[in-house]
Amino acid sequence: MKGSRNYYFLFALTIAASAAAAQSLDWQAVERLAPNTRILVKTQKERYCYFQKATSDKLFCDFDRKPASSQELDSDLVFKRD
Asked: Which DSSP letter does residue 82 get?
């Protein structure tokens, strides 16, 4: 019985590690998006916006597309990564 309990614990640990790794890889893909890419952000509400940048813990986007030459540093929307 103890052996099967260890097996289930190891299995659960493997699943948790896989999920964490997948989330990390997915976020890396977000960080590589080109500025002004139209995206759908789902929180309590769904919002379309134009991606500007992502850091390790936040996503920045705008309601309207900005010209490529824009030097504006502020964004209309900032989402915390959860």
From this structure: -
Residue 62 in tokens: 């705008």
Tokens at 71, concatenated = 């030097």
Tokens of 41: 């952000």
The C-alpha atoms of residue 19 and residue 8 are separated, in whole angstroms, by 17
Q: What is the pLDDT of residues 65-75, one digit of tens each?
A: 776 666 566 78
Q: How many CA atoms lie within 13 A of 51 on its CB side?
A: 17
12: left (phi over 0), alpha (psi -120 to 50) or beta: alpha
Domain boundaries, the chain: 1-32, 34-82
pTM: 0.61
